[in-house]
């Protein structure tokens, strides 16, 4: 069968079902109308009248050899058809109902090179036992695949959790709910007034910390806020789809808090498990020159396991460029990977000419201005940072017409290899190699080559 998602079944059974349906419908109207009604019944989508006519002739002529040829011809037409490809140009982020899927990548998809299995949930735990429990269960996941498994550039839709839903503010959230207002509106009230309004007043010290964190967020992060970025699959020839997810464990399950568009190392996929380690740790959290580092920032940094007021520059051959909100990361002990990169705001706070979301950086993991400040504010020191990508899905360039990545190659499906293999002869046959020197490629190979 066929679908607009480019998935095909491995047998020409769809053609047989189509022909059987057509024969049963022949007495109920015109031949063409009967044939078109059968397309939907058996799950076929054919884009052109030519393909429909070809299918009709195949049903008349029959024959397993011609059925197989027809099957691969339709596969070629669908893979290379701009009409069908338009559906692939839409990005998965906008229609993915499982919002927390990216936060489960380390525990379902990413492989630990030491064991060959996914990481245990316990691997995300921050090793600083002095942190509050909610902070110890925060971690970051980089999904650096710019394409889906079929080679379609994914596009990006960012996700922001509202400040009132953050785990920093359980008591403020309860007060706001009782008053039927939002958490941010409580920032100007006194601690005493807030404690008095609680249904079950508790210690004022804990509520004072929540209030200070809220005021700090509004002053140092919220004022830079922009709308969540939404980017199509291909922008100016770049294949967009790389994301950075900020996650935490809530009630024993991974939960997405933020998802940002990002960019990683350019010039092709880096060596797997060698340039970016699969599991890293955030070693330091640094500042930016466009805002003042206040005593409230210093106190929050103490609660977050440490932080610095310093600015980290990129040396740039003697012409330093600031890397705002630089969070340095390196491999967890026992894993290989570069220790010279960080997560930071792109220099100048710009979108690199629209290329954000594609692998275009010098090695660091880049973010936009608001996103970088929020990441620095929310992420505790020593948080775990997982990096996931598949080399064939790490693509920089894409075709805007089809939405497909350039240079993408689908890994060979073992089941299709077996189905395409000729039957093994009962006796040995000695071939004349000279006569086979210019043997033509198979139709399947030709279809895949055109689709790249």
Please explain how this structure is put together.
This protein has helices at residues 13-25, 31-42, 49-61, 64-80, 82-88, 105-108, 133-136, 170-179, 191-196, 204-220, 295-303, 369-378, 414-420, 443-451, and strands at residues 138-143, 156-157, 159-160, 230-231, 234-235, 238-239, 243-250, 253-261, 279-285, 313-314, 321-322, 327-331, 341-345, 365-367, 384-388. With 452 residues, the protein is α+β, with helices and mostly antiparallel strands. It has three domains: 13-87 and 425-451, no CATH class; 92-158 and 228-393, L,D-transpeptidase catalytic domain-like (Beta Barrel); 162-225. Strands 3-8-7-1-15-9-12-13-14 form a nine-stranded mixed β-sheet. It has a two-stranded antiparallel ribbon with strand order 2-4. The relative contact order is 0.15. Residues 1-17, 26-31, 39-51, 60-94 and 413-452 have low confidence and may be disordered.
Summarize the structure.
The chain has 14 helices and 15 strands. The protein has 452 residues and is α+β, with helices and mostly antiparallel strands. Helix 1 (13-25) packs across helix 3.
What general outline do the C-alpha atoms trace?
globular
Per CATH, the architecture of the largest domain is Beta Barrel
Mean pLDDT score, rounded?
79
Q: What is the name of the CATH superfamily of the largest domain?
A: L,D-transpeptidase catalytic domain-like
CATH domain fold name of the largest domain: L,D-transpeptidase catalytic domain-like
Main sheet specs: 9 strands, mixed
N/C terminus separation: 22 Å
The level 1 CATH classification of the largest domain is Mainly Beta
Helix-strand pattern, N to C?
HHHHHHHEEEHHHEEEEEEHEEEEEHEHH
Biggest sheet strand order reads: 3-8-7-1-15-9-12-13-14
Radius of gyration: 28 Å
Contiguous runs where pLDDT drops below 50 for at least 5 residues: 1-17, 26-31, 39-51, 60-94, 413-452
Helix/strand class = alpha+beta
* Number of E-state strands: 15
Q: Total helix count?
A: 14
Strand content: 5-15%
Secondary structure: helix percent:
25-40%
**How many domains would you count in the coordinates?**
3
